[in-house]
Amino acid sequence: MTDEFTTDIYYDDDADVSTLDDDTVAVLGYGSQGHAHALNLHESGVDVVVGLREGSSSRSAAEADGLTVTTPADAVSRASYVSVLVPDTVQADVYENAIAPNLEAGDTLQFAHGLNIHYNQIEPPEDVDVTMVAPKSPGHLVRRNYENDEGTPGLLAVYQDTTGDADERALAYAKGIGCTRAGVIETTFREEVESDLFGEQAVLCGGVTSLVKHGYETLVDAGYSPEIAYFECLNELKLIVDLMYEGGHAEMWDSVSDTAEYGGLSRGDRIVDETVRENMEETLEEIQNGEFTREWILENQAGRPSYNQLREAEKNHEIEAVGERLRDLFAWAEEEPTETDDESV
Ligand code: NAD
Ligand code: MG
Ligand code: MG
Ligand code: MG
Ligand code: MG
């Protein structure tokens, strides 16, 4: 643990995988996170059983990887530690049908994202521990890092501790998947969920794509060529973000020209102004009061009509066709595409 932060950070020395020696861990789902958790735990010496529906296409993959596979219900009944790694939108259903009937007092119910617990879509009984271990990375990297003896930073939260060992057990799990090699930050379900939703809506996914589209449209509508607009507003973004990732805003400002620095510093707040800040606060409020999640649940129940429409409109934006053409024409596109996953942020 370090004292420099207000949050607690845990490393390998703070955790002991043998805490789970008497447990069987059921990993439900074998997608991005599921395959990584199951394989890493298995190789860390933990007894793992994978729970998948009959006929699930992931079944053969998990079996080929040398893991024991059974139905979600049977996996839960065999296990004392249940890691819920099916998509967030089906978790409530899987909980009701496969998990709840097979949970026993003293079991651990664990998530990698707190959405269903925080918004009461899953209401676990009082006699089980409820925890979260959430790697801050797509599952494929969780797996690759583990294989390379590297770690993946993660979050840990305890929602309900009936055994008195919830923290220790979640830390053992975090070590088993390789997270404590890098560092695990303690948080709460509320903080993890609300900040995650806000980040992806306001900045990372929603905010940045809207900023790019507005910039692109402004240039193209003023008569500049789409190719130039694409480079200026989308392609160069990666170079800028790489610098910010490495050394914060300071490194980015250092690396750009003084003209860019003065222009950016003097104009940035005019573009993303107080009204944007107010919109962000409104968006955060919808997250905090549950309005967003209610909307998303209803959207799923209705067969995702708005979601499909929004996706279609985004796909048909001119910048996408321009980008596809340009990426084919230039040498930089020969780099391997990076792995992305829509639930990874
Ligand atoms: P995913 O979509 O990659 O995989 C889902 C798995 O669940 C698949 O194996 C699928 O076959 C199985 N599945 C789907 N429906 C099922 C059902 N009804 N019954 C049983 N199995 C079913 O999911 P994911 O992206 O790994 O997300 C899992 C959890 O991890 C979510 O809570 C997500 O928020 C969280 N998370 C994901 C990432 C990420 O990088 N993808 C990062 C952090 C946290
Ligand atoms: Mg059991
Ligand atoms: Mg320039
Ligand atoms: Mg400079
Ligand atoms: Mg998210």
TrEMBL record:
Keywords: Amino-acid biosynthesis, Branched-chain amino acid biosynthesis, Isomerase, Magnesium, Metal-binding, NADP, Oxidoreductase. One of its GO terms (biological process) is isoleucine biosynthetic process. Residues 7-187 form the KARI N-terminal Rossmann domain. It catalyses: (2R)-2,3-dihydroxy-3-methylbutanoate + NADP(+) = (2S)-2-acetolactate + NADPH + H(+); (2R,3R)-2,3-dihydroxy-3-methylpentanoate + NADP(+) = (S)-2-ethyl-2-hydroxy-3-oxobutanoate + NADPH + H(+); (2R)-2,3-dihydroxy-3-methylbutanoate + NAD(+) = (2S)-2-acetolactate + NADH + H(+). The keyword NADP applies. Substrate binds at S257. Binds 2 magnesium ions per subunit. NADP(+) binds at Y30, G31, S32, Q33, R53, S56, S58, G139. Pathway: Amino-acid biosynthesis; L-valine biosynthesis; L-valine from pyruvate: step 2/4; Amino-acid biosynthesis; L-isoleucine biosynthesis; L-isoleucine from 2-oxobutanoate: step 2/4. The active site is at H113. Pfam families: KARI_C, KARI_N. InterPro entries: 6-PGluconate_DH-like_C_sf (IPR008927), KARI (IPR013023), KARI_C (IPR000506), KARI_N (IPR013116), KARI_prok (IPR014359), NAD(P)-bd_dom_sf (IPR036291). Its EC number is 1.1.1.86. Mg(2+) 2 binds at D196, E232, E236. GO terms for molecular function: isomerase activity; ketol-acid reductoisomerase activity; magnesium ion binding; NADP binding. Residues 188-333 form the KARI C-terminal knotted domain. It is an enzyme of class 1 (oxidoreductase). Mg(2+) 1 binds at D196, E200. Its cofactor is Mg(2+). Involved in the biosynthesis of branched-chain amino acids (BCAA). Catalyzes an alkyl-migration followed by a ketol-acid reduction of (S)-2-acetolactate (S2AL) to yield (R)-2,3-dihydroxy-isovalerate. In the isomerase reaction, S2AL is rearranged via a Mg-dependent methyl migration to produce 3-hydroxy-3-methyl-2-ketobutyrate (HMKB). In the reductase reaction, this 2-ketoacid undergoes a metal-dependent reduction by NADPH to yield (R)-2,3-dihydroxy-isovalerate. HAMAP family: IlvC. PANTHER family: KETOL-ACID REDUCTOISOMERASE, MITOCHONDRIAL. Belongs to the ketol-acid reductoisomerase family. This is Ketol-acid reductoisomerase (NADP(+)). It comes from Natrinema altunense (strain JCM 12890 / CGMCC 1.3731 / AJ2). The gene is ilvC.
